[in-house]
Design a protein that fits this description.
Neuraminidase, about 350 residues, Gluconolactonase, mainly beta, 5-stranded mixed beta sheet, 5-stranded antiparallel beta sheet, SMP-30/CGR1_Lactonase, 2 helices, single chain
């Protein structure tokens, strides 16, 4: 059983009580303490059985899109409060951006600039050196995007992102609106040419998280279709894999793994090619063949995760409903050719 540490200031706890946001309202797995559960002998090579899981913050309404910055801080979205939060070691959690145009996922480009998937602007945007935000992509042809959700930057600097409708369907996650693109798609945007390409991913009905395998020859896409109607078990809740050629074309579509309970939301790949997926009960980890190696159970519905390294120690920063968690792990993130 993992040790369970609360790192929440007295002022934050008071704020939670005043806001009526007791932890019980956010729990997705019965309020149980976090636990590392090895389902195969090698899982504890990735994360120790007694990993020191810390809750760094617990005052959000829907935590998403964590990103480790070069200065050691971590930002993440509190979508329903329309803000981006920041954590720094030894400091109280604060607001990094507000209003945040209902940011969801974040990534860094090759210049170290933050790229964001904005529900509010229905766009992918970048924070430039002067601190201002610039829209990079918001139109598919002449049609407004839905609500970009998550993104990743490849070795050539291209931005791959997903565009489901959650941010226009959910009143608290954006400014509303209707879908005009004719579906929920995956896109690739090239900042050099300003070219936006809609990708063919027919097995993915509601794209969400996405991540590359080491070497970027495989792209994994989370399909969160079940998130539109959690009572309909016929809807997709799996991860789909694609081969990627040098030009970015996708081929060899295949179901990689099914995720349950709930849906795969954010996903990441480690340096050994293992896929780490969020779920309603915490994190689930699959080897490159799609076999589940183990899981990290958390007491809240889990949305996303980010790898980081501080002082020679690898960590996962995990966003789950109201919280940000930090988990020490024994493996780093998959690296592209530019790293």
């Amino acid at each position: 059983m993992s040790r369970w540490l609360y790192h929440v200031s007295r002022s934050l706890c008071t704020g939670l009580l005043m806001a009526g946001m007791g932890a019980g309202s956010a729990l997705a797995s019965g309020g149980d303490a976090p636990a590392v559960v090895a389902e195969t002998p090698g899982f504890n090579d990735l994360v120790d059985d007694n990993a020191d899981i810390q809750q760094l913050f617990g005052g959000a309404k829907w935590s998403e899109g964590p990103l480790a910055l070069p200065d050691g801080s971590v930002i993440w979205s509190d979508i329903k409060n329309n803000r981006v939060m920041v954590w720094r070691e030894g400091e109280e959690v604060g607001e990094w951006l507000r209003p945040a145009q209902f940011h969801n996922g974040h990534a860094l480009d090759h210049e170290g600039r933050v790229i964001a998937a904005s529900h509010g602007k229905r766009a992918v945007e970048r924070q430039n050196e002067d601190g201002q935000w610039e829209v990079l992509a918001d139109l598919d042809g002449e049609q407004k995007l839905n609500s970009p959700n998550d993104l990743v930057v490849d070795a050539r600097g291209r931005i791959w992102f997903t565009d489901p409708t959650f941010g226009i369907d959910e009143p608290e996650e954006g400014y509303g609106g209707r879908s005009v693109t004719g579906g929920e798609y995956v896109y690739r945007f090239d900042p050099e040419s300003d070219e936006l390409t809609r990708l063919s991913t027919p097995a993915v009905k509601t794209p969400n998280g996405l991540a590359f395998a080491p070497g970027e020859n495989t792209l994994y896409i989370a399909d969160s279709e079940l998130g539109h109607d959690r009572e309909n078990d016929s809807l997709n809740h799996h991860i789909v894999a694609y081969d990627v050629d040098e030009d970015g074309a996708l081929a060899n579509e295949r179901i990689f793994a099914e995720v349950s309970p709930g849906v795969p939301d954010g996903i990441k790949v480690d340096e050994h090619g293992n896929v780490w997926s969020s779920s309603d009960s915490g994190l689930q980890v699959f080897n490159p063949d799609g076999e589940r190696l183990g899981r990290i159970d958390l007491p809240e519905r889990t949305a996303n995760l980010a790898f980081a390294e501080h002082g020679g120690q690898h960590y996962l920063f995990v966003t789950a409903t109201s919280s940000l968690y930090r988990i020490p792990v024994n493996v780093g993130e998959a690296r592209s050719q530019r790293d």
